[in-house]
Recover the amino acids of this structure.
């Protein structure tokens, strides 16, 4: 596609519900990143895929967070048993190559999650 | 890990010039990026520096000093539409970008 596409754009979940957030990267982009952005803060790294391989998941805040990219294209970020502190914008980004010098990452518009 | 510092908020007047500073501490520095983010929208790429010096792109310029761990984004001929958050992000080795908290710029008439 023309840009990184994320869905749903907005999600309200009751505390304890599971949510799944989808990211469709730019066509042909090898690398895919998930970031979490709280209000008034910068994006915080969650996890990174190169093709279908999850190379870094050091930013996932707890074992309630899980991400996958089974065919090396679309990715899903799943949050189990949501808590109020999970309320944030979840940004997906992709880049043509890996994390090496000069590789620019392009962001989607984010999925806004509110846990009530 | 990286420690990235930038001012929280700045205000400037339409038509003026503003400089947004970013300092960082990292090992294995491998590039610094600036992104613009309007409220409720995705961050969009503005500039990239990996060598010392100034990169100019229209009204926007970005400067890097690796020895000082310092960068700035310079915005000239400010327009109201430049009101946004400006995010400084650093790459260390081949790790994913780490972002600062962002600087919220308000352009006033």
């Amino acid at each position: 596609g023309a840009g990184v596409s994320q869905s749903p754009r907005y999600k309200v979940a009751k505390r304890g519900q599971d949510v799944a957030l989808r990211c469709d990267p730019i066509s042909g982009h090898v690398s895919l990143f998930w970031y979490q952005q709280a209000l008034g803060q910068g994006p915080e790294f969650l996890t990174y895929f190169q093709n279908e391989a999850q190379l870094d998941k050091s930013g996932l805040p707890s074992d309630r967070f899980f991400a996958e990219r089974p065919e090396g294209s679309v990715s899903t970020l799943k949050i189990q048993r949501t808590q109020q502190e999970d309320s944030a914008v979840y940004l997906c980004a992709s880049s043509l190559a890996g994390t090496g010098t000069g590789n620019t990452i392009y962001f989607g518009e984010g999925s806004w999650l509110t846990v009530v | 890990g990286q420690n990235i510092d930038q001012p929280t908020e700045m205000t400037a007047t339409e038509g003026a010039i503003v400089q947004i500073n970013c300092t960082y501490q990292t090992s294995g520095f491998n590039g610094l990026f600036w992104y613009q983010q309007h409220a409720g929208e995705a961050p969009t790429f503005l500039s990239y520096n990996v060598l010392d010096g100034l990169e100019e792109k229209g009204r926007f310029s970005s400067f890097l000093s690796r020895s000082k761990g310092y960068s700035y984004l310079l915005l000239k001929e400010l327009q109201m539409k430049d009101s946004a958050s400006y995010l400084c992000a650093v790459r260390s080795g081949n790790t994913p970008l780490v972002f600062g908290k962002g600087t919220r710029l308000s352009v006033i008439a």
Summary: Chain B touches chain A at residues 4, 30-31, 33, 35, 41-45, 48, 50, 87, 89, 91, 94-102, 104 (CB under 8 Å). Chain B has no helices and eleven strands. The two ends of chain B are 40 Å apart (CA to CA).
